[in-house]
């Protein structure tokens, strides 16, 4: 049994075929980087793993169960654009999901229960390096700090899978390096399985233990929407040798398949 199984998945919107023939197995603890030309369906695959979109054909299973369309704590997501609540402080932003779970009707918790949630939140805020900003509001934070906050929020639900959709795309190169270190630490310490869409193929190589390249194999100039993208390369990046082989391949094909 694999942790996540993608079994002959196809996805179309109306008569536009986006993805086709995806068959992949992912084990727990892998870090899958996903690259490919803009619009080829990377985010669509993330959404199907999240459960917010359904395959048109085929099935995705997590631990032998079909992915449920309802929000599920097993899967957390961090987008490129900051997804934090502007009217809540750092601490409140990280606490809020647990508070809602604990107090479904009032959305508030009190006393010991609130303190327990706060203690847990403070742990994750420390882990992402935001202790000094715990009472600040999102507009007082830099872009990198807001992404740290979004990661702390996602970790609060102890997800097994973390879905990252160009999480560092809006950040300056120097800050991206810090974020790479952070996400690597978060990945290892929380035994996460990560799927990350990126337009930066080097980032994909540096962070991933595996790299998926999306590309359209079939073309019909008379019917440009008839065929979707497939995963044309599925590269393991665990060893130095695999990294080097992957880099060589990437140099050869990057111009064709990735908008660099
Ligand atoms: N809900 C939807 N209804 C119709 N078409 C959609 C919908 N969501 C996405 N699409 C289309 O599906 C295609 C793939 O979109 P997707 O966002 O998955 O691509 P992507 O590879 O992540 O692109 P980018 O790298 O630019 O973020 C695009 O042409 C997009 O317009």
UniProtKB/TrEMBL annotation:
<dbReference type="InterPro" id="IPR017871">
    <property type="entry name" value="ABC_transporter-like_CS"/>
</dbReference>
<dbReference type="InterPro" id="IPR050093">
    <property type="entry name" value="ABC_SmlMolc_Importer"/>
</dbReference>
<keyword id="KW-0067">ATP-binding</keyword>
<dbReference type="InterPro" id="IPR027417">
    <property type="entry name" value="P-loop_NTPase"/>
</dbReference>
<dbReference type="GO" id="GO:0005524">
    <property type="term" value="F:ATP binding"/>
</dbReference>
<dbReference type="InterPro" id="IPR003439">
    <property type="entry name" value="ABC_transporter-like_ATP-bd"/>
</dbReference>
<dbReference type="Pfam" id="PF00005">
    <property type="entry name" value="ABC_tran"/>
</dbReference>
<keyword id="KW-0547">Nucleotide-binding</keyword>
<feature type="domain" description="ABC transporter">
    <location>
        <begin position="4"/>
        <end position="241"/>
    </location>
</feature>
<dbReference type="InterPro" id="IPR003593">
    <property type="entry name" value="AAA+_ATPase"/>
</dbReference>
<keyword id="KW-0813">Transport</keyword>
<protein>
    <submittedName>
        <fullName>ABC transporter ATP-binding protein</fullName>
    </submittedName>
</protein>
